[in-house]
Amino acid sequence: MREFLQLWKAHQEEMRMAALRDPLLNSETTKFMLQVGERTLYNYVAQGKLTCEKRGQANFYLESSVLALMRKSR
After folding, report:
1. What Gene Ontology terms describe what this protein does at the molecular function level (predicted)?
2. Which of 9, 54, 58, 67 sits in a 20 to 30 Å window from 26, CA-based?
3. Where are the domains of the chain?
4. Is 24 helix (H, G, I), strand (E, B) or coil?
């Protein structure tokens, strides 16, 4: 359990630092940029193709991960 908490804290810190360096995009903007629906967006996160951060009840996506996915999709 301790190891899990340490890994979780490390992940949270990594996400916090990434957010400081990288702008966050809301779901609507991300869906528009990728030309996908809500379900596809969820699948991209589940597959690790997009980095998502939940703030309150809203999901935000790292701009760099959205742009990387756009480049791969070409």
Report:
1. DNA binding
2. 9
3. 23-74
4. strand
CB atoms within 10 A of CB 39: 8
Residue bearing tokens 């996915």: 69
How many residues make up the chain in this entry? 74
Separation CA 64–CA 74 (nearest Å) = 16
Q: Which CATH architecture fits 23-74?
A: Orthogonal Bundle (1.10)
Strand duo 52-55 + 24-26: pairing: unpaired
* pTM reported for the whole predicted model: 0.69
C-alpha span between 48 and 65 (Å, rounded): 10
> What whole-number distance in Å separates Cα of residue 14 and Cα of residue 31?
24
Question: What are the tens digits of pLDDT across the range 19-45?
Answer: 677 889 999 999 999 999 999 999 999
